[in-house]
Amino acid sequence: MSDIKKFMYVNRKAPYGTIYAWESLEVVLIGAAFEQDVSMAFIDDGVYQLVKGQNTKELGIKNFSPTYTALGDYDVKKIYVEKESLEMRGLTVDDLMPLKWEDENEDYAEKDSIQVLPAKELAGILDDADVLLSF
Fold it and tell me: Which of 9, 59, 76, 94 is most exposed, with minimal Cβ within 10 Å?
């Protein structure tokens, strides 16, 4: 049995208005920098965190959404989005940022990090995590 624990970060909050989304992203990057097996799930309003083209100028706060594009560089390549949460908000995978990672085994081919999954399938993945952190 491996000593490496699987960490799942569950994001349920909209990106702005609370500190949860930013804190989750920071913790994920720190964990990944220390070579944890990191996965992320975006459920409910958390799906808004990955919407492309965010503009926070009128809110008067920094837009941290471009930071998600660095996840692949930290070997965070398992990003799960609940299908029903997208649909309830009128969104599709095309509305989300194109997050990628480079597969060293395939001549650094870029691959999609985001997987849109039905709630039942995502529940199984959440169940499989050793450590579940919810934001």
Answer: 94
